[in-house]
Amino acid sequence: xxxxxxxxxxxxDMTKEDIEYILKKSEEMEKNMKKNKNLLNGYVLSxxxxxxxxxxxxxxxxxxxxxxxxxxxxxxPKASSVAKGETLADTVKTVEQYSDVIVMRHPNxxxxxxxxxxxxxxxxxAGDGANQHPTQTLLDLYTINKECGKxxxxxxxxxxxxxxxxxxxxxxxxxxxxxxKLIFITxxxxxxxxxxxxxxxxxxxxxxxxxxxxEIGKADxxxxxxxxxxxxxxxxxxxxxxxxxxxxxxxxxxxGNAKIMHPLPRVDExxxxxxKSKNAIYFRQARNGIPVRMTLLSLVLxxxx
Amino acid sequence: xxxxxKVSAIKNGTVIDHIRPGKALEVVRLLNLENYEDSVTVAxxxxxxxxxxxxxxxxxxxxxxxDEVNEIALIAxxxxxxIIKDYEVVEKRKIELPDVIKGILTCMNPNCISRxxxxxKFIVEKREPVVLRCYYCERLMEEGEILKRLRI
Lengths: 305, 152
Ligand SMILES: [Zn+2]
Description:
The structure holds 2 protein chains of 2 kinds.
Chain A: H1 16-31, E1 44-49, H2 54-66, E2 70-74, H3 88-96, E3 101-106, H4 111-118, E4 123-128, H5 134-148, E5 155-159, H6 166-175, E6 181-185, H7 194-202, E7 207-210, E8 221-224, H8 235-242, H9 252-255, E9 259-261, H10 282-300
Parallel strand pairs in A: 1-2, 1-3, 3-4, 5-6, 5-8, 6-7, 8-9
Helix pairs in contact in A: 1-5, 1-10, 2-10, 3-4, 5-6, 5-10
Chain B: E1 13-19, H1 24-30, E2 40-47, E3 53-60, H2 66-75, E4 80-85, E5 88-94, E6 100-102, E7 121-127, E8 130-134, E9 140-141, H3 143-149
Antiparallel strand pairs in B: 1-3, 1-4, 2-3, 4-5, 6-7, 7-8, 8-9
Bound molecules: zinc ion.
């Protein structure tokens, strides 16, 4: 599959074949890290983060470095021309002159799409507001596949803020390509949006909505997200639910062998005591971002097919 | 070509026919015809066949722009447009909702990049009833929200 010059903007643009191909290539990449250390020699990646996300930026920079490429970045877009009223279109058209590929994060939904429409080099979306963060979704799928040996046939639970959580929306959408069962564990106020549930129904993906982890039943994966206080109009409602959606050592009895994932950073929704358990895979999940992003960079730059 | 019905025939202008029942006043508001200086005829619940009724709007001395036609397509997609010259129908076409709608309405998401720069663009996700998806922020916009954003 030739993905040279493809923009990676939204998981909604990707077919199942695209996803499977990227996962397969990422697996190969992970096995051949050393062999590929000069693959992107001579290429320059610009990271353009209009809002900070240290982890995601470092992950991309590390991926580019491991392939022998160079990275330049706008340290503080707020202090640069962006703050002086330059349009996003002009900023990316200028940065295009210095680079071969752009990774960008922006607080406005649709920013990466707009950027991709005005430049010729590939754009990788590292988050556009509450909308998409496709490389996160790909590394999540990669992690599930790697840790469980497959995706088809799994029961995957998602817990926490499923209403506003961009990560879980994209993940649920992508999982609809597979033969999975989904379980949504949320307080009443933070249920999975009906648009996504409608989509799952159309795709024939069974899902269950429950309000507590004790009803989880058999699950292979538990994907945890943070519940933010600001999402509750009444602080009392937040106080009521905040304890229920935490993973504590005693929760492990309910979880059995379920692998615990989290997009990180966590606040207090997973107790640090869990980190040493065999269930905890969230730090390995973060590491998986490297081979997946190395693969995407190599594919869109046309150095891998 | 067929003669217009004598009763309310217009000499020159546009007849929007086969508007789904109940939508004529929305079309009138959409085209800002309340303050139109020439004559506007609105017919509601006219029998069009044995079991069907329709609304009709006739506007003297006015032609519709492409944007206006697309706006009508959003609220009454099965309508037809007849251009009248000297009592004759010189052009007749069915209004069709295009696959992509540009510029005529703003995205409902205040945080969408299209509200900050460039212009709006929507992909028609569903036609009956109309559901649009913002090309940029990917939010869905359903009929009620579309009407609100068309300011009618
Ligand atoms: Zn939008």
